[in-house]
């Protein structure tokens, strides 16, 4: 069971563990930083989910380059 879970959700598991690990550092610095911990866990979970789903890069550099070159011809 654990092997199937790891194979299908490894990115999400790593993301959550990384978010919690980084969040502990911020928890030690004060109570109000728990909001930042929630942001860290959420961000790391989504990054792991994107890895599991093979969404591609977070920032589509190639699409941005094509868009910029269409807008500004002198960039070519």
Strand percentage lies at: under 5%
Taken in chain order, the helices and strands follow as HHH
Structural class: mainly alpha
Helix share, percent: over 70%
Instruction: Give the overall shape.
Output: flat
Cα end-to-end separation: 53 Å
Largest sheet: none
Please tally the helical runs, counting DSSP H or I stretches of 4 or more residues.
3
The parts where pLDDT drops under 50 for at least 5 residues are none
The averaged pLDDT comes out at: 79
| Rg estimate, integer Å | 18 Å
Number of strands: 0
Core attributes:
flat; membrane; transmembrane; mainly alpha; DUF2273; 3 helices
Care to describe what's here?
The protein is flat. With 76 residues, it is mostly helical. The protein has helices spanning 2-27, 34-53, 61-71. It comes from Paenibacillus arenosi.
Secondary-structure map with pairings?
Layout: H1 2-27, H2 34-53, H3 61-71
Helix pairs in contact: 1-2
Please give a quick description of this structure.
With 76 residues, the protein is mainly α.
